[in-house]
Sequence to fold (373 residues):
Amino acid sequence: MPHFNEPTNSPTDSDVPFRVAFSHVTGVGPARMSALERHFDSLEDAWGADRTQLRQAGLDKRTTDEIESTRTTLDPHDAYTRMLDEGVTALTPEDDRYPRRLKEIPDPPPLLYVRGDLIERDEWSLAVVGTRRPTAYGQQVTRALSAELAGSGLTIVSGLARGVDGIAHETALEHGGRTIAVVACGLDRVYPPEHKPLAARILDTGGAMLSEYPLGTRPDARYFPRRNRIIAGMTLGTLVTEAGEKSGTWHTVTSALDQGREVFAVPGPITSEQSTGANNVIKRGLGKLVTCAQDILEELNLGPIERQAELVEQLPEDPVEAVLLERIGSEAIHVDELSRILQQPVHETAAAMATLELKGLIHQVGPMTYARR
Fold:
């Protein structure tokens, strides 16, 4: 995954200003954006369409009204230029720089705003989430595990919120690791405001901030569950260090499970309300109990991240492995089916799959059945 200062050849470059414009329209999310793309030859055509055409595309009256209202005050190219002037990049799922795992979820953001850098090693990332009001125990375990995970080379992803999120980001930075903040507002804002210095440190150390919301968007309670699906979707798994029963962390856990990602939880005192959510993740069999970073690394079949990155760089030399990786997504697939697709003997496919598993790029989810990490 290249840095943002490298050129890219996205087939939708000319549509990006109009994607930016539509992201300013209340009610136009992944589903309605897809409807517009299916119906119109380009998003530029969709932006200039009349009411009848928009309704024919499947939009309801309210969304059509919102589009008509927004385009009276917003020029797509001006909005795009302002975004670039703010140092923000907009990525579409067709862009090579868009996080690969995020493309695999059911409703990936049609436009991902990025400030900072995403790098290839962010393929190996873990979400660390939890309560905004951690106990001394929660603070301790979050620091300990985040330090170990960052030290192993994993990129720590969280939501920049008070409590566990902030501790996870800060600890990763303190130990020389990478961290990415996914926020529920425009990237010209920082919420909570007391985390402005933390956000600056994340960017100054080469990390990144991500959002699906355009510049000027204020934080809103409705946006946080949507934000959480991005946190879960772009990572290998989600770690809950401490969370109450009704914590917003459940949105992230649910998203991770729906997306076929791993979930991990730290057990806490049964007398602590702040540990009820994490304990229930374990009790209900939704996630794996962990007491140290090694539990997570072993479950994800991860060795030293730098070594795995070197192995990935070697993949193009093996055409069979490269083709297999293209075919294997987050949904489980059996070796027999892959053999039929590749039109090669099962034993050859199985051997290549075993190699990919050793490299930590796929994992076995059932007998001779694999999914992408």
